[in-house]
Amino acid sequence: MTQGPSSIEQAGGGRPLPPLARAARTGTRNRAPAGGGKTAYLFLAPYLVLFTVFVAFPAVYGLWVSFHSWDLLLPNKPWVGLGNYRTLLDPGTATGGDFWQSMKATAIFTVFAVPLLVVLPLGVALILNQKFRGRNFFRAVYFAPYVLGVAVIGVLWTLLLDPNIGVVNYYLEKVGAPENIAWTTSLPWAWIALVGVTVWWTLGYNAVIYLAGLQDIPRELYEAAKVDAASRWGRFRHVTLPGLRPVLVFVITITILASANMFGQAWLITGGAPGNETRTAIMFIAQEGLQNFRLGTAAAMSFVLAFFLMLVSLVTFFFFRERRSS
Amino acid sequence: MSEGLPFERRLSRRRLVVTAAGAGAGLLLAGCGGSSAEEATGGGGGDTGGGGGDAGKTYTGPNVQLQFWNGFTGGDGPFMRDMVSQFNSEHQNIDVKMVVQQWGDYYQKVPTAVASGRGPDVGVMHVDTLATNAARNVIVPLDDLASSLQLEQSDFAETIWNAGMYKDQRYGIPLDMHPLGFYYNTAHLEKAGVSEVPMTREAHDEALEKLKAAGFDQPFWQSSTWPAHLMFMSLLWQFGGELYNEDSTEATWNSDAGVQALEWMVNLVKEGYSPKNVANDADYIAFKNEKNSFHWDGIWQTQDLAKTSVPWAVAPLPQIGDQKAAWAGSHNLVIMRQRSADENKLQAAKVFLNWISEHSLEWAKAGQVPARNSVRESEEFKALEHQSTLAEQIDYVKFPPAVPGIGDAQAEMEQAVNRAVLMKQTPKQALDQAASKAKQLLAENQKKYGA
Question: Which of B115, B285, B425 is nearest residue A73 as measured by Cβ atoms?
């Protein structure tokens, strides 16, 4: 770390340096960094190796696969060029039609799950950030479902939500709800069930991140706001929310990506029923690639899905950037 | 979990527990196996020394270890494990290691393991997956084994024996068959005054009415998921239909026979004999809780029901259509392709397959009907009440055709049944739609695997 400033500069990329660093830098101007910057790459190397082996290479290989009719075990893996993509873009074909149906399912789930998973955990975090007896107990309670695996919550809710023999309907009927609501076999109930289960399951995770964000907001800001006679709402609106902005962007982005990758809940609870209405994109990709051994089309689908996810991420990114400059 | 289709995803607490236990055992075994080292030293030039010439009867070569993979995660697992231990104790120079995993995982893992040269030596596959695995070079032909053991059709039920063929070569030695059966609650029938198990459509309708009159409001829960498609196939065949045309280029389940079959199932819901929206084992759970009087399910459930206090019995499927027919699955013993052939292992594998096949009476006790006539006709087998009852169907059981990738098309049919039973579409609509999709998939597969 003797050539500290230059390393910082390397690692920092194009970011404006803080005043102190800038001052230090003036002394080292025009001097070539001693290690030629190799140190930085050395430190980056372990991650870079993992990234290359497990992310970059598979992605490129996947792209290559998507241009073929690919079955791992068949000696003949004919090149089909953009054929797989053409099939997908034609909803008239069996595969294309099913694929867009699964993309629609993913979209429906994401649109309903994300707002709930962004807003509800914030509320929970605000409450859990208060001082009250048993606070740690409740923090644990809200986080608890998240530690369960998807297989566990899937089986659990499959039984609880069963239209005919489930406990949920049993109690709902006691309080006068309509009989035998088809939570797992009909729309829109299946979506309500899947979104509900997912919110119950992953709410704690987002809440913990919010909680950490809330505890990072300086107390003095709240005190200053109080001195200025800001109401509760005012303090939330003008202190808490701006303070949480980076956390919020993070939560929204990962929640969108996680929702778009939803698989286990639908696989276990609805099995895609009715028909294939709740079969999500990832579920269909897995079936196509791992059960039907059509890795070419499955890879092509993954790239189409990835393309859409990049679009959505870009939109989120720009949405929040705009807000910052205004 | 010895159901007939690979990607079944039935869930019940019991099975999950058993599965978890099985997976644990599998891990342990995999840990002790050390197959990779074995493979590296064992293979070599594949010299034929020491193999002992009489393929499949005895093995006199050096000590070998065989990896035996299967998906017997349910009550059937311990039976197979006992058979393997007995085999090991009778054969000092062959050490068989059994590794169990869920069928769904198994059918995904085995091909990959075989492709990377770390596959098992022997395994079990369902009859409707043989063609796919043969076409994908996962398993090897066994014609020489069959002929050297003088295994012949005459000792096997014809349908079962012929189903092990793909492109005129034999890929599987049938071990058993597991047909669909008609489970009923004996106490309910008695209370409703039904003295004989209804075996015809008329008797069946009448029995349902009587059950209803006796206070069993919903006597026949019609599932929209597993095993609804097994019921549909059985009924389709009963009404004289076929799943596919002669060369399997088109799905024909949307024929009149198919529509009649599916309508019969949907009518159970429409007429109130079944609740709506039955899914995920609710029908079976209801049967076990004596809320459901009739239930069609596989022979494998006999083992599970035997542990309950439910007054139950099982009969062959009633004849609803014009002829008798029933869906069945069949476990076949297979030998996996190896990167480098090891004659010793191959010979030992054949001895093992032959031994298991000959001892299939033991296996029958796990809730199966043995494929071998000699075993099926033995007094010991006849003493197994439920198994021998369901074995009566052996002359008219049917399987999906031996076509690579047929599971892709079958999945469409499964969805059609689901849609119809949930009353999202009429039987005709659902079956037509599925048939047209299946036609495309069949064409794609024919191109892929080479017709």
Answer: B115
The predicted pLDDT at position B2 comes to 40
Q: A71 lies in a domain? A: no
Q: Which residue of A has its CA nearest to B417?
A: A275
Range of the domain at A53: 4-65
Q: Tell whether the model's pLDDT for residue B126 goes beyond 70.
A: yes
Question: Of B30 and A107, which is predicted with more confidence?
Answer: A107
As a whole number, mean pLDDT of residues B57-65 equals 89
Q: How far does B231 lie from chain A, in Å, by closest CA? A: 17
Q: Where are the beta strands (DSSP E) in A119-278?
A: none
Q: Which of A31-40, A244-253, B172-181, B315-324 has the lowest mean pLDDT?
A: A31-40
Q: Does B221 touch chain A (CB under 8 A)?
A: yes
Enter the pTM of the model.
0.85
**Does B278 contact A at CB distance below 8 Å?**
yes
How confident is the model over A130-152, as a mean pLDDT? Answer: 93
A47 in a structural domain: yes
d(CA A206, CA A189): 25
The residues spanned by each domain of chain B are 13-175+330-396, 179-328+405-449
Q: Which CATH superfamily groups domain B13-175+330-396? A: Periplasmic binding protein-like II (3.40.190.10)
CATH entry 3.40.50.2300 includes domain B179-328+405-449 = no
Nearest C-alpha neighbor of B331 from the set B102, B110, B128, B114: B128
Q: Are B282 and A165 in contact (CB < 8 Å)? A: yes
Alpha-carbon distance of A121 to A203, in angstroms, equals: 6
Question: How many folded domains does chain A comprise?
Answer: 2
Chain A residue numbers with beta carbons less than 8 Å from the beta carbon of B114 are 73
Residues A119 and A202 in one domain: yes
Quick one: average pLDDT of B398-420?
95
Match 């950490």 to its residue by tokens. Answer: A212
Q: Is B224 on the interface with A (CB under 8 A)?
A: yes
Q: For B180-212, give the secondary structure using H, E and C.
A: EEEEEEHHHHHHHCCCCCCCEHHHHHHHHHHHH
Closest chain B C-alpha to A31 CA, distance in angstroms: 53
Residue B11: pLDDT band (50, 70, 90) is very low
